[in-house]
Amino acid sequence: MAEPSLQNKNLFAVCGKGGVGKTAITAMMSRVLVENGKAGKLLVIDADPAMGLLTALGIRVNRTMGQVREDIIRTSRSGKQQDKDHIIDSLDYMAFEALEELDDYALLAMGRTETLGCYCPVNTLLRGTIETLSKSFDTILIDGEAGLEQINRQVVRRLNTLIIVSDATARGIETAEMIKDMVENDKVIQCERLGLIFNRVSSNEDLLRKAVQKIGLELFGIIPQDENIAYHDLVAKPITELPADSPGLVAVRDIVENAIGIKSHIS
Known about the structure:
Low-confidence stretches: none
Order of helices and strands: EHEHHHHEEHEHEHEHEHH
Structural class: alpha/beta
Helix content: 40-55%
Strand order of the largest sheet: 3-4-2-5-1-6-7-8
C-alpha cells in the first residue's frame, strides 16, 4: 500500500515516558487547533489503550478500533469463508462506526484489545484502514502510549512531527534520548521533524535547555507547572475547559502557533 502524502497534511504524534502529561498536552493542542482554525478538518486519535484522552476531552465513544480488531479475530477463528469475506468488505464501514464526529473535530479511539498474542496481519489491515480514513482530514493529532511501537504498529508509519514530552527529571530526558535513537537509528517510525517539550516545569529552565541541547533535540517549548491542570485532572474535568489564560494552555498555544509549524488550512 502506498504511503499517504505528507505534502498537504499535518500529522503529529505526542509520545514520551508514562506520567509526563502527554494526554493533557494533546487535549490542549486539540483545543488550540480548533480555536485558531488553521488545522482545517481535524482528526484526533487516542492511541493509548488507557483512553485517558477521552476524559481530558470530555467525550464518550460507543466503539473503538480495538473492538473492531476483536471482531476480525473472532470471525477469522470461525472458519467460515463467507464471514471472513464479509468482514473484509465491511472494514471501512466498521472503522467509520468507530469514528466519533463532533462539531469541531473527529475522534478515533484505538482502545484496549482482549485477545492476546501477535496478530500482525490484523494490525496491518487496521493501520491501512486508518490511513485511508485519515485522507479525509487535513490535520491528524495522535496521543500515543509510552514508546513508539504502538503508534507505528497500529496507526501510521510516517509523521510530519514527533513531539516528545518529558518532565524535568533525568529519567524523562533519558527516555527522550532513547526515543530519538529509535527514530533516527532504528527507524521505528519516519518523521520529518523531531522535538521535545518539557512539562510541569517550576525551575531550572537553563539546565533543561542545556540538557536538550546536549542530546541533540530541538526544544519546542517549556510548559510551566499549572495548578489548574492538576485540579482538572483530579476532579476529571475536561482539560479543554481550562481558563483561556491558564499558564499551561498559554504555553501550549505558543508551541502550536510558533514552534511546531502547523500548515494552515484556512480556506
